[in-house]
Specification:
The chain is built from eight helices and nine strands. The chain has 250 residues and is of the alpha/beta class. It has a seven-stranded parallel sheet, with helices on both faces.
Amino acid sequence: MRLDGKTVLITGAGSGLGRETALTFAREGARVGVNDIRPESAQNVATEIARAGGDAIALVADVSQSAAVEKIVRDFVAKFGTIDVLINNAGIGRAEHFPEATAEMSDEVWHHMLATHLDATFYCTREVLKVMIPKKSGRIINLGSVAGTTGLAGSAHYCAAKGGIIAFTKSVAREVVSSGVLVNCIAPGFIDTPMTAPIRDEIRQIALALTPIGRFGEAREIAAAALFLASDDASYMVGQVLSPNGGFAI
């Protein structure tokens, strides 16, 4: 029970990496806020945690909207009293937009990608810091990607968003460490999730060929990295980028 009694808010927790992380944290004793833009997905994960004996609340919101973020943070604190850990996981990766040449990318596609990843990370971080800084403790874990460290052709919008999250992580980590808040980032490689399932086979084969371990990662492997960063074992981790990527980036 490495997170016994801790309160954890996870965005985009209705499926994929977020769901696996929510279930993992609940098994470790955390009380979990399950955010998702899809009401049924958020409630299903919260119910799954409750049936296993855990404590969870579904928080439905589009976290790319600042007013919606303010509301779910208020609701979370009303339920659990405080926030110990924030995991900024919400994201999109539309298969029809990969690859998409930069010269042909619309304003709408560009702005939607950045809003869902980068704006949401900022809005959620800003709100929880208002809780964490006064109490002089907290952990924030942002989900970047190897796309933000190496770049991927045909994914300039996604790479820009994830690269921005990595830079944002490092900046905020320096800013708030003196207040007892530790901010770090996870930059996964290609992981088997519902978001990556629609990737065209030729793209999948290229990704596999560039990954020395020879397979896509599993959601549990990313949840394990998040668990480490949220636990007392990571008390000396500040502004770091952990990248479970199977050797895609070394």
